[in-house]
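Per-record layout

source: Olea europaea subsp. europaea
name: AB hydrolase-1 domain-containing protein
length: 364
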Amino acid sequence: MVEEASSSQYPHFAKRVNFPMILLHGFGASVFSWNRVMKPLAQVVGSKVLAFDRPAFGLTSRINPVEHSSPVSQDTRTLNPYSTMFSVLATLYFIDFLKAEKAILVGHSAGSLVAVDAYFEAPERVAALILVAPAILAPFIAQKVVKEKQGGRDNQIQESSLDSNNPDNPFLRICSLLSKLTKYVAEAIVSMVKGMGGMINSLYKKALSAILRSAFGVMVVRMIINKFGIPAIRNAWYDSNQVSDHTLQGYTKPLKVKGWDKALVEYTLAMLTDSASKLKPPLAERLSKISCPVLIVTGDSDRLVPPWNSERLSRAIPGSYLEIIKNCGHLPQEEKAIEFVSIVENFLLRVFGAAEEAHLQAVT
């Protein structure tokens, strides 16, 4: 879905932003979750706003990645369409599709992870990040503890006593040799355990894949969604009485797509067995390296991703802005659409408006 500004409702603002916006939905959602805000956001940015269904969700084709994968003998292997990296590359593709150098990425819940990963994949293509009820585990930032002077003195005394030992002492030589031997043995054991861990991990992935892809595994997934799907939707709202039949139909319509259950299994497997993420440093360690403008929006009554996680996340990302909407659950863009758009507008005006004013002052 693509929305484009049809009128100059925000003429002063559109000239300052001039970036398209890409909306990334969360787990179990689709472009439907952005219906209430796409057109207003297009007016705010004065450009195109694009949303797309991620594989396994919405009305996307539910392909079997095993049947469509390339042979192992080839130099390149087909990227799993249900992996996070596929969604990241799709996001970057749509920036090209919009013929833009940069875009504002808006991720909701699990879509926030795709937005952040897309930034780290190509930071020069991301103008700003807007994370809505982000399902990103925020790191615990512990306060630095300063040691007492007395403790430091004890350590100095202990170190000086070791340094003053006579190196010609045969007892110390034996201890040194035993220490080195123990070190070598320990390193060998650790190396062996790591090798066994890799083998066990490989066996675990194969066993997990076999179980989930079996008829029993697919049946279990289908039973879980049928039993808890609608209650989960209602639970995502602060006031479940506001969840209309139209909203329920919008979320359950994708369950009529052929192969939705098997695709959900493949998505789950892709998340649990993601090997690409293990090649990178943990996300918690990279959050502090985000340098583009970041806005985090959350509801004060979010029962799926608690507000305190968003608060910790904002502290982990330097210079980020945090907005907490009152009487709101996990879906601010649906439950509090007008307030959500207003928050986004103020953030973009604060970030890009200030930059434009500074540019005008420099020119004059």
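summary: The chain has 14 helices and seven strands. Strands lie at 2-4, 21-24, 48-51, 103-108, 126-132, 294-299, 321-325.
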